[in-house]
Every structure is written in structure tokens, then in C-alpha cells.
Amino acid sequence: MIKEPIHDKKSCNQHIMAVHDAMYILNGRWKISIIASLCFNTLRFTDLLREVEGISGKMLSRELKNLEENQLVTRTVLNTQPVTVEYELTEYGHTLKEVIDSLAKWVITIERKLEAKINLCFLFQWLFEKIPDELNSVLLLQLLVKDCFECW
């Protein structure tokens, strides 16, 4: 019995195009970090500048303007002396919180796996240095090559 494909070509193309559209809106180095920072609080410009590590004021201003144009962020100018500007996610912007949470969980999982693998590689390297050449070196090399090929 031939299995029917789970998805047809049209639905796959729509899915891929939706991902392309999302990437177009969220492109760049900083947008996801800005959105992630705003997921929890309304922040002033200077707070965002501190929160998003490594971004310049000019770039933050440009990215916030773009996020505002895409209706992900609202900008509120407060009538204070000096003028204070606050940024917060729109209702539409808050829909990305689940995506960002999933992305963070994925990265944490990957980091743990990589950390465990790297720790194993260091152990194998240490063992390789300690064991005399004639004693199990072939077996140890096989383990190193099999489990830690990327580390070498």
C-alpha cells in the first residue's frame, strides 16, 4: 500500500513562503533581541540600549523604527522633562513571545548537548595524553574519531 504524502505541494509552498515573510520582518542581528527584551516590560530607549548587548544607539533607533512600522512595537512619548520615550510590544508583537520562548528552549537544549559532547571530548583528549602509546591507543583513537570528530 502506497502512503499518501502528509502535505501537498501547495501547503508546503505556503508554509515556506510564510517562513520567508517572517524572516523578512524579523531580519537582522538585533530585532529578535529587542523583541525578547520587550516581552517582559515596557522599556525606555536607554534601558533597551543596556539590555540589548552590543547594539549602538543609531542601530537601536533604526531597528525600533522598523519594528514600529511593522506594528510589532509601539513608541510612546511621555510629557516629562527631559522627554522620555517608552517602547512596548503591541498585541501583535506579543504573539512572538511563544516563538521566542521556543527558540530559547531550543538553544538551551543544544547548548547542553554541545557542552556534554565538548566535556566528553576534553576527557578523551586528557586520557589520550595520559595513556602510553602502546596501551589502548587504537581504541581510544577510535572513540575520539567517532564521538569527537568535530572537536579536532
Report how far the terminal alpha carbons are from each other: 46 Å
Number of helices: 7
Order of helices and strands: HHEHHEEHHH
Give me the secondary-structure category.
mainly alpha
What does this structure look like?
This protein has 152 residues and is mainly alpha-helical. The chain contains 7 helices and 3 strands, in the order H-H-E-H-H-E-E-H-H-H. Strands 1-3-2 form a 3-stranded antiparallel β-sheet. Strand 2 (73-78) and strand 3 form a beta hairpin. Helix 6 (97-130) runs antiparallel to helix 7. The longest helix has 34 residues, at 97-130. It is flat, with a radius of gyration of 24 Å. The two termini are 46 Å apart. Residues 148-152 have low confidence and may be disordered.
Question: Which labels suit this protein?
Answer:
152 residues; 7 helices; single chain; mainly alpha; disordered C terminus; three-stranded antiparallel beta sheet
Secondary-structure topology with pairs:
Layout: H1 9-25, H2 31-38, E1 43-44, H3 45-51, H4 57-69, E2 73-78, E3 84-89, H5 91-94, H6 97-130, H7 137-148
Antiparallel strand pairs: 1-3, 2-3
Structure summarized in a few sentences:
With about 150 residues, the chain is mainly α.
